[in-house]
């Protein structure tokens, strides 16, 4: 029986070779896209799975009710009080940086070492990397203790058994207490060396408001993180009771004004995609879901093609089914036979998609900057499950439809004149075109949004501005290094001017604090800078004046603010110029002397944040944040000037360190990369969808028009012109296309508008993509169907009329 079914299947594959190829092609493309996106999602979900304590480790976040935002940091007093007062807490670790870099010297060699983490003592209790040498007991207890990875050990010593050896960096000698091996699995926490920032910890130990640390809490076995969050409210109140007295307010008023209002714990293996805010970048789970949904839609389109083509071929197999039923074939056996035919196509597509996925994986990895390999059984399991699902859905509908034919009717030849399958085919074709219309509309609007962001006036001019980041800080006094370099590098040919800013465009991590005026407080970014930095990058002054080096007050208590700062307080420009505000980073009032036009520093996805600009000497500790120098280059010889700057730097500054530099306009352009990739992916998926849909439409129209060739012959004999015949054959498909686009418009509008809501600077929903989608699909439908319709007008009349 099985052999007979296989023979019949291959006869039908050969007879309908075009539809067979289209089904194979469509399902292969769909399954390949599905597997690639599934691997991407699976890779994103696999972070921190290596940690044996992952079920008890949580990442800490704060919540501010006033601004409805989550913060990714914690202060030392909050963490210590959580350990003392919350019974669920077993331990915690704080880290204050995730990219410390130093030139390190050992008895063997001197080398530049990156990716260091300054952490608190309990680091290895939370992150138990495999120990290679030394001991984790008290590994970071002393100020001069350091633990290094095997990679760092080999780089500095040429071997891994180096516990007890000495490393000198940052003008200090450190003792290696442990050597560890970094986990093989995906992790955002892979430090090449860890040490305790003793001086910073000492300074921050009593500072409730210094949120300078990422915090991880190890809870006791079986502890409920929600209980931690409830009890943490009491710790928030402790701080409020201490600090509210100075301001003459109640503790609750203090919390409402300054926050935080609540806390949130996210499991460590969920923070890559599911945390609200992290030290390692904002999670983007929505993009993964969008990509996955689009890949599933392509598979659905392929399944629709299969259903359409199978039901359209019904008349060709009607007599076969009638004969089978007449000699005793059951409905269930017919269903199984047709499901087997579908499964053979699906399994062939699956095997082809595995090969195509392997072929495309290197390019896919390069696009997403990943190292995915096809060695995870989940990928094969879920992709095969998708194949089984497609087999059932795309096979069962045609199978039930075909097996329901009445033997007497089909043997009498009445099936061809029946409209039994018209509504099924038209309905499924409509669904396919709805999806195609959505992809066209969505692709055009995504493209418009990305273009809008890239062409938007950023409010600054970063062209020809070359930034060099410091690695060494002039014996702990970086501002002195900057001031010396400003004088010396001005002599380099091609350098027009020099300045500095703590918050240059393209940076993602800027410090912020509360800004107080009377009983009102807002959060604002810090923008310590040199006198002329805002003019240096072409920011526009709206009111007041710039900082002036001739006025001593401009290094004491003068500040400029942006429009967002004024809006947040609800002031007019005139009111702002009369205000003295108290910033949380200093203990004196600052007088607003100027208002500048908003300009983007971080990303166009987010609104411009309130920011305060002031000279770097105005606040004593801000001098220590002078970590870069920016040079405006003459446009006539940029390459030559950059070469001269590099030669000067290598010869006179920081030998042994890499030359860490970039043009700030190119650095800011990196904030667009995610959206440019979304644009590229949407374009590729759009092309795939249209290709699958149009091939399916062509095959379906071919089969349906073939069923009408006798009608065409009769009408042509009666004098119908070719144009009338073509219009008559295509009219039905054009109406289906028109209906599908009309249905897709509200669906597309809603879904795309939800995507656009994530952008602070977004386009207004344009009308033309919806009209364009209608016109394009009507034209493509007409072109595709009219090809076959035109061929139908050239039929041999004798062949189709000789039996009439």
UniProtKB/TrEMBL annotation:
Q: Name one GO cellular component term.
A: plasma membrane
Q: Where is the ABC3 transporter permease C-terminal domain?
A: 293-406, 685-796
Entry-linked InterPro entries? ABC3_permease_C, MacB_PCD, Macrolide_Exporter_MacB
Query: What are the residue boundaries of the MacB-like periplasmic core domain, all occurrences included?
Result: 20-231, 431-647
Q: Which GO terms describe its molecular function?
A: transmembrane transporter activity
Which UniProt keyword terms apply here?
Answer: Cell membrane, Membrane, Transmembrane, Transmembrane helix
Which protein are we looking at?
Antibiotic ABC transporter permease
Q: Which organism is it from?
A: Chryseobacterium glaciei
Organism ancestry:
Bacteria, Pseudomonadati, Bacteroidota, Flavobacteriia, Flavobacteriales
């Amino acid at each position: 029986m099985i052999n007979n079914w296989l023979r019949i299947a291959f006869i039908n594959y050969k007879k309908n070779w075009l539809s067979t190829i289209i089904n194979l092609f469509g399902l292969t493309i769909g399954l390949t896209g599905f597997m690639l996106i599934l691997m991407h999602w699976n890779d994103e979900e696999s972070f921190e799975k290596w940690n044996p304590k992952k079920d008890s480790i949580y990442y800490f976040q704060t919540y501010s009710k006033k601004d409805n935002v989550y913060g990714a940091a914690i202060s030392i007093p909050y963490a210590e009080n959580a350990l003392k007062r919350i019974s669920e807490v077993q331990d915690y670790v704080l880290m204050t940086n995730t990219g410390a870099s130093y030139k390190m010297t050992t008895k063997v060699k001197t080398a530049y070492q990156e990716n260091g983490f300054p952490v608190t003592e309990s680091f290895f209790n939370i992150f138990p990397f495999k120990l290679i040498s030394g001991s984790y007991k008290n590994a970071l207890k002393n100020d001069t203790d350091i633990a290094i990875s095997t990679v760092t050990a080999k780089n500095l010593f040429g071997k891994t058994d180096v516990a007890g050896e000495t490393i000198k960096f940052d003008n200090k000698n450190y003792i290696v207490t442990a050597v560890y091996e970094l986990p093989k699995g995906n992790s955002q926490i892979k430090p090449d060396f860890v040490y305790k920032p003793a001086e910073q910890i000492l300074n921050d130990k009593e500072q409730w408001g210094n949120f300078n640390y990422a915090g991880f809490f190890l809870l006791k076995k079986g502890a409920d993180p929600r209980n931690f969050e409830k009890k943490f409210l009491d710790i928030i109140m402790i701080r409020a009771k201490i600090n509210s007295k100075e301001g003459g307010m109640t503790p609750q008023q203090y919390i409402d004004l300054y926050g935080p209002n609540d806390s949130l714990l996210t499991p460590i293996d969920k923070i890559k995609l599911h945390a609200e805010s992290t030290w390692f970048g904002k999670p983007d789970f929505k993009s993964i879901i969008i990509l996955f949904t689009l890949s599933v839609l392509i598979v659905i389109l392929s399944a629709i093609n299969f259903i359409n083509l199978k039901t359209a071929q019904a008349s060709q197999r009607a007599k076969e089914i009638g004969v089978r039923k007449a000699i005793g074939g059951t409905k269930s056996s017919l269903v199984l036979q047709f499901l087997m035919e579908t499964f053979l196509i699906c399994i062939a597509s699956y095997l082809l998609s595995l090969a195509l996925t392997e072929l495309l994986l290197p390019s896919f990895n390069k696009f997403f900057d990943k190292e995915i390999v096809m060695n995870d059984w989940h990928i094969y399991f879920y992709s095969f499950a998708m194949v089984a699902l497609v087999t059932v859905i795309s096979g069962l509908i045609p199978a039930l439809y075909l097996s329901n034919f009445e033997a007497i009717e089909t043997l009498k030849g009445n099936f061809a004149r029946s409209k039994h399958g018209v509504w099924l085919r038209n309905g499924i074709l409509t669904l396919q075109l709805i999806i195609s219309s959505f992809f066209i509309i969505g692709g055009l609007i995504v493209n418009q949004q990305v273009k809008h962001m890239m062409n938007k006036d950023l409010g600054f001019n970063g062209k020809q501005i070359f930034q060099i980041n410091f690695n060494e800080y002039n014996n702990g006094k970086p501002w002195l290094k900057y001031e010396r370099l400003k004088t010396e590098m001005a002599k380099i040919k091609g350098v027009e001017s020099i300045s500095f800013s703590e918050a240059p465009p393209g940076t993602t991590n800027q410090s912020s604090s509360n800004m107080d005026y009377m009983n009102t407080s807002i959060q604002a970014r810090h923008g310590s800078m040199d006198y002329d930095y805002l003019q240096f990058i072409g920011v526009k002054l709206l009111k007041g004046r710039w900082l002036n080096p001739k006025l001593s007050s401009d290094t004491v208590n003068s500040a400029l603010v942006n429009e967002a700062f004024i809006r947040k307080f609800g002031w007019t420009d005139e009111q702002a110029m009369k205000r003295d505000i108290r910033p949380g980073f200093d203990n004196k009032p600052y007088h607003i002397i100027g208002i500048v036009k908003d300009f983007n520093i971080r990303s166009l996805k987010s609104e411009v944040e309130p920011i305060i600009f002031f000279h770097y000497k105005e606040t004593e500790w801000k001098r220590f944040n002078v970590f870069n120098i920016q040079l405006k280059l003459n446009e006539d010889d940029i390459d030559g000037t950059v070469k001269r700057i590099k030669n000067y730097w290598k010869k006179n500054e920081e030998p042994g360190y890499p030359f860490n530099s970039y043009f700030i306009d190119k650095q800011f352009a990196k904030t667009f990369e995610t959206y440019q990739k979304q644009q590229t992916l949407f374009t590729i998926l759009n092309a795939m969808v249209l290709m699958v849909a149009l091939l399916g439409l062509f095959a379906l129209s071919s089969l349906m028009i073939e069923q009408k060739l006798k009608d065409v012959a009769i009408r042509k004999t009666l004098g119908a012109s070719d144009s009338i015949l073509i219009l008559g054959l295509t009219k039905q498909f054009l109406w289906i296309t028109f209906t599908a686009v009309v249905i897709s418009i509200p669906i597309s509008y809603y879904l795309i508008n939800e995507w656009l809501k994530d952008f602070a600077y977004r386009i207004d929903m344009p009308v033309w993509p919806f009209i364009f989608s209608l016109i394009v699909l009507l034209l493509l439908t007409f072109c595709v169907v009219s090809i076959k319709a035109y061929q139908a007008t050239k039929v041999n009349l004798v062949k189709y009329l000789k039996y009439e």
